[in-house]
Amino acid sequence: ALESLLNIRSKINVKYPDTTVKFAFTSNIIRKKWQHRAEDPDYVKAYPEIPTDVLHVKTPLATIADLQNDGYDTIVIQPTHISMGEEFLDLHTYVNALMNMGTLKKAKYKPFHKVALGRPVLGTYGQKHPYAEDIAAVAKIMKPDVKLASQEKAGLVYMGHGNEFFPGNGGAYLELASKMRRIYPDVVTAIGNVEGYPAIEDVIELLNLYGVKKVVLKPFMVVAGDHSMNDMASDEEDSWKSILEKNGFEVIAVTKGLGEIDDFANIFADHAADAAEDAGIVLK
After folding, report:
1. Contacting residues for 235 by C-beta, under 8 A, at least 6 apart
2. Computed over its alpha carbons, how large is the radius of gyration of the chain?
3. Are 148 and 235 in contact (CB under 8 A)?
4. How far apart are CA 188 and CA 184, in angstroms?
5. pLDDT digits (tens, 9 = 90+) for 220-278
């Protein structure tokens, strides 16, 4: 899974070679996994190539505090989230709170001068950067997947993450799938989520409506982690691959995170650039 994240950081480093770039993970589960690995000397010895800030990754607030302690008062937070979901909106509240921190003396003593938040892959609300343009840009980037499906005479199915308790995520996924079906009419594209709507049942319903019998199955996630390897592509009874096969589909599973695709990784560098420009921050 790290390959995608390191590729994203490399794109930002290339674009802004004089800007410090740090990782932070919003997921409590993933941070705990890395904490256990960092405490395992055999693991550390076996994987010397893992960057220190990944091995000892912290929360966004802890990482921001470290930066502030090192003298940084201007920060751009660029999430690697796909959609405007729960964790992205949590980050939004963090930024508002940090910008509201003041001092009793002069304004120059405030902990932070400016903190800006970039938008997720499929965009967010507001008129400055219409989300539909973000969706259209992503649809164009996914052309190689469409080409693969076309060569295989198959439909294209993506597995997103989603959230069964947070409404709104599904709409962005459905709009992207619809956009791709319009600009690539020779391949039927369907997107479902591990959690929430649209689910695998909704994907199967759409495939049946279009008469699709063979699919290329890929994760619509930045990294190819547990969901990709187990929930999507494994031979376990409840994996998407197994469910699709039980429903009569031939399945070609591809376990590759979106962040491994250079054009996709560049989205995050571009969104960080937009956030900096909007806030009057100069990245070098």
Report:
1. 241, 242
2. 20
3. no
4. 8
5. 999 988 888 899 999 999 999 999 999 999 999 999 999 999 999 999 999 999 999 99
